[in-house]
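2024-03-11 09:14:02 INFO worker-7 job=invfold-0412 stage=load source=structure_tokens
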């Protein structure tokens, strides 16, 4: 299966070519700091997952201050405050089979905790991969600007499975829970 480079508002199914459903979904966030005259300056981006019910109300949140969902179905790898290193800087892993039935949407966001705007962030991307680590889709966060947060992608229930929608909605906030009004409008 080839990797899909997601575009804004594009949707993909979380079903394998043989018809089986994904059991896990991981979202990896990668970025680099700002290149400048004196070297690279750190940027503190934070990946989060908002769990919403059918009415788009917040049920739970996984982020750097709460690394596991209350139900145990979602785990965050921990806070990376610099963007240094290769590969994913922060990862959120979801066991889709154990997400409570009351949760209809999983919304993945990124925000600049130190309020540096995305104009300063280099090589930012979000990738989705399965339980074997096979990359299924990638969303390049190429939209630069004076915003400090991005609603990246949402996974939502579709029949007995899940689909993903690339959102790429730019806004401003310091932590993911401040995005709720925007989230409700774009998912």
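2024-03-11 09:14:09 INFO worker-7 stage=emit residues=187
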């Amino acid at each position: 299966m080839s990797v899909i480079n997601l575009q804004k508002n594009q949707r993909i199914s979380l079903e394998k070519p043989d018809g089986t459903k994904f059991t896990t979904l991981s979202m990896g966030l990668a970025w680099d700091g700002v290149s400048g005259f004196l070297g690279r300056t750190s940027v503190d981006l934070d990946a989060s997952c908002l769990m919403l019910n059918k009415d788009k109300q917040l049920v739970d949140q996984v982020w750097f201050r709460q690394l596991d969902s209350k139900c145990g179905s979602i785990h965050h790898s921990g806070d990376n405050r610099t963007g240094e290193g290769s590969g994913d800087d922060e990862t959120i892993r979801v066991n889709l089979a154990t997400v409570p039935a009351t949760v209809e949407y999983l919304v993945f966001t990124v925000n600049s905790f130190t309020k540096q705007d995305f104009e300063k962030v280099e090589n930012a991307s979000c990738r989705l991969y399965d339980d074997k680590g096979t990359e299924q889709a990638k969303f390049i966060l190429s939209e630069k600007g004076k915003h400090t947060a991005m609603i990246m992608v949402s996974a939502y229930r579709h029949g007995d499975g899940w689909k993903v929608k690339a959102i790429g909605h730019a806004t401003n906030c310091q932590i993911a829970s401040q995005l709720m009004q925007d989230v409700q409008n774009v998912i």
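2024-03-11 09:14:09 INFO worker-7 stage=report msg="The chain has a mean pLDDT of 85."
2024-03-11 09:14:10 INFO worker-7 job finished
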